[in-house]
Amino acid sequence: MLAGVAVGLFSDYQDAAERAIEVKRVHRPSPDRTSKYRELYEVYREVREGLDRAWSLRGDVYSKLDQSAS
Predict the structure, then answer these.
(1) Cβ contact 42:50 at 8 Å
(2) Which of 11, 16, 42, 66 makes a 20 to 30 Å CA pair with 52?
(3) Ordered per-residue pLDDT tens for the chain, 70 residues
């Protein structure tokens, strides 16, 4: 679609989306599952933050190893 806009096939990005995308089905959230998904999302966030810290520590260790090898 971006290339189509660039070469003039579509007048702009909105035109490209309207002409190239067909919505066949819309999914709506299930209210009875919302609280469970929120709970699971909080678990995901905690895991993600823990991994961020772990990767940062890993990077620090590798940097120190590289410095000591020089």
Answers:
(1) no
(2) 66
(3) 999 999 999 999 999 999 999 999 999 989 889 999 999 999 999 999 989 989 989 888 888 888 887 6
* Measured CA distances, 30 to 27, 33, 36, 39, 41 (Å): 9, 5, 11, 15, 15
For residue 5 the two structure tokens come to: 């806009």
Q: Residue 9 CB: number of other CB atoms within 10 A? A: 13
pTM of the prediction? 0.44
Please identify which residue in the block is written with the tokens 């002409």: 19
CB atoms inside a 10 Å sphere around CB 1: 14
Contacts of 17 (CB under 8 A, 6+ apart): 1
